[in-house]
Write a structure and sequence with these properties.
Largest sheet: 4 strands, antiparallel
Number of strands: 10
Structural class: alpha/beta
Order of helices and strands: HEEEHEEEEHEEHHEH
Oligomer: single chain
Number of helices: 6
Radius of gyration: 19 Å
């Protein structure tokens, strides 16, 4: 993987941080969407002889970065949740494409809000799991848990959000 790593290191020097310009109204936050991410990284990767593919195989969204000359590659993947609604599965695919690529390249997002640096660190949110969500819901109402997710007190998967919203 010598050629791949050499070319990937050169590309990463040029990629830098990406500014978030898309808005998530549910969490009132900004993010970079898959199209913005690809527009930013693909030309740099191609300049260094690297190519991205993002196939879906065996219910997993893969991101592969190939060295065009050597055929060497590295990849990252996430397994898709079982969702019947085509629009929701499409959203999950876009989300997973963005995060597998950003993770594979270890991309940093620019802090668009200068005030964030001066705010005290937030408490680490409680991660909702199948094991603890029931006990949390016994102590708190569904509305309180959803508000906690929105405020960052809790984190949840898309599947858990769907269950909570039912």
């Amino acid at each position: 993987m010598k050629e791949l790593l050499k070319n990937l290191a050169a590309a990463k020097k040029e990629i830098g941080a990406i500014s978030k310009d898309s808005k998530n109204p549910f969490f009132k936050s900004k993010y970079f969407d898959i199209n913005q991410l690809l527009e930013h990284v693909e030309p740099v990767l191609l300049k260094h002889g690297l190519m991205i593919t993002q196939p879906i195989q065996e219910n997993k969204v893969y991101t592969n970065i190939w060295d065009i000359e050597s055929g060497e590659f590295c990849n990252s993947y996430l397994e898709l949740p079982i969702i019947q609604d085509p629009q929701k599965i499409g959203s999950a695919i876009s989300y997973f494409r963005r995060y597998t690529l950003a993770s594979l390249l270890a991309i940093q997002a620019e802090d668009d809000d200068g005030n964030k640096a001066s705010k005290p660190a937030k408490k680490t949110p409680v991660v909702l799991t199948d094991a603890n969500i029931k006990s949390i819901l016994e102590k708190k109402t569904q509305k309180t848990v959803l508000e906690g997710i929105k405020s960052g007190k809790f984190t949840a998967t898309e599947k858990q959000l769907e269950q909570l919203n039912k």
